[in-house]
Amino acid sequence: GFWYKQGFWYQSKADFSVEAIMAAQDDFQLALPTDIFLASHPKTGTTWLKALSFAILNRTKFKTTSGSSPTHPLLTVSPHDCVPFIDCESFLTNPSYANGLLATHIPYTSLPKSIINTDCRIVYICRDPKDVLISSWHFLNKLNDDVSTPIKLVDAFEVFSRGMSPGGSYWDHVIGYYKASLERPSKVLLLKYEELKKDPEKEVKKLAKFLGKPFTEEEEFDGSVQKIIELCSFENLREVSNDGKQISKVLSDSLFFRKGVVGDSINYLTPEMIQTLDKITKEKFDGLDISFQA
Ligand code: A3P
């Protein structure tokens, strides 16, 4: 079943479902001012942002090559195991606040009040809507592997462009966090997938500063930034995920690594679809300073 709640569409009886969001609103009253939330719409680079933030905050605790400190978790487990989603059944039944780093797909306007009221920091990642659609379409079809009829692209396009995808409208999701980032710049940082791909060093430094763990001058020169980028690269994370590990009842870790590039949607969408999506983007973001450069 599908639900329309607080301005967005949700599925029922799934992770990130309407029930999970309502439960998070009721149950998540414990946010601490030191908590950091990684927020996103699905398929915008959540897994990457989780890995980068975790690696930045824990960079002195773990070894990645040699030395006596413990092996880096990202060399053995999924970024999703390092940073839990609060809007997942598993978190709601067994909350773990291991390191104050948490994630959510909940739209800004529906976030549990304690997150806003306690002034937690929020990092939001977004991405070109066309690539989000194509990434979601592949993801849903892989998730439904056992179902004999795959979702047709035209149908996925229709649902996405009408803003009826789970957690959608995507555009409204971005707008909510974008406005928050303007109103509370020290509390809400907006990152873009495309910019992370284009200049990872600049964006990772920006992220580290926002997270309260800026790189020291020494670190900027000793390759620490590069090391984190490398550890969290698509290739590395995908390799770690390759053994079919599950991160929840229905999700296997490797589902989160497909192609990891900017602009892959051009290989799937018709020129008409591209035109329609770009038109929606232009209309929705009219007067706002949001754009996605390849
Ligand atoms: P594609 O399907 O376009 O390849 P999310 O983590 O929000 O579910 O987003 C998944 C998307 O991010 C997928 O996009 C996936 O391949 C890509 N991705 C995952 N890890 C990445 C990384 N380390 N670097 C770049 N892209 C990554």
From TrEMBL:
Coiled coil (UniProt feature): none
Domain Sulfotransferase: from-to ranges: 33-288
Origin superkingdom: Eukaryota
Family statement drawn from the similarity comment of this UniProt entry: Belongs to the sulfotransferase 1 family.
The protein's name in its UniProt record: Sulfotransferase domain-containing protein
Protein's organism: Ambrosia artemisiifolia (Common ragweed)
Residues of the full protein shown: 372 to 665 of 665
